[in-house]
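Structure request: Acyl-CoA thioesterase II, Flavimobilis rhizosphaerae.
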Amino acid sequence: MTDAAPFTALRDVLALEQVDENTFVGQSLPQLNGRVYGGQVLAQALLAAGATNPAGRQPHSLHGYFLRPGALDIPIRLEVERLRDGRSFSARRVHAFQGDKAILSMITSAQEDQPGIDQQQPMPAAPDPETLESAVAKLSTIEHPVAKFWTSTAAFDVRHVGSSLYLGPDRNGDDRQMVWLRARGTLGDDQLMHRAMMIYACDQLMLEPVMRRADLDWGTRGLSIASLDHAMWWHRDARADEWLLYVQSSPSAQGGRGLGSARVFAQDGTLVASIAQEGMIRVPDES
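Returned structure:
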């Protein structure tokens, strides 16, 4: 694939087929593990819900549960339930099915643009993303099938502030990390699509703080990891095709589950979103 091809492939997968006023169908991108990528089906569910909202209402929050692994070769049917359309807010529930089995259940709320209190936490100091090494460039030099697949299908440019977890653990015992992220293509001005792209992108990062604190990396032998649930709040408009800084941490991990959180800032310091995700993280018992 060329640099633009992964981004184009993602755009194509997020272009849902509308069957009726509340039903949509989507396809899946290839994955080495043979399962549907969670960020993809979550983004598709948000787009399906957004297509049923009154004009001018953008999603401000989302809460989803991943119920089953999805198969790559089976279309995903997205069924939207219109829970409420109030004067300012609209609520939607979306179930994603393959056959008669649900693989995702999500509820989202959208709001008209309205005035109100405007305050935020400041963005921490971070180096300019253009001064950092791109994960795509770094991994493209590695002769390994996983690295080759990832770099050939990466729709986003990922740049860690400090060490990444691709080639080894951090060994500092610290759960904090910062990552710059930007789509490898240009989007229009559709804010719903930008928010869907943000969901797609962040799912690959959200559990890294848990791994970082546990001295794990993506190459840890026997590592088993899967998203369980995902919550996201959009505070302000954002562009997924411009640099976004994910400021991440992990408050807790136990019982084979770990919780990751993130605040997302535009490059000018505007806080655009907050995210939380719990996932299953298991490693072989070597005792």
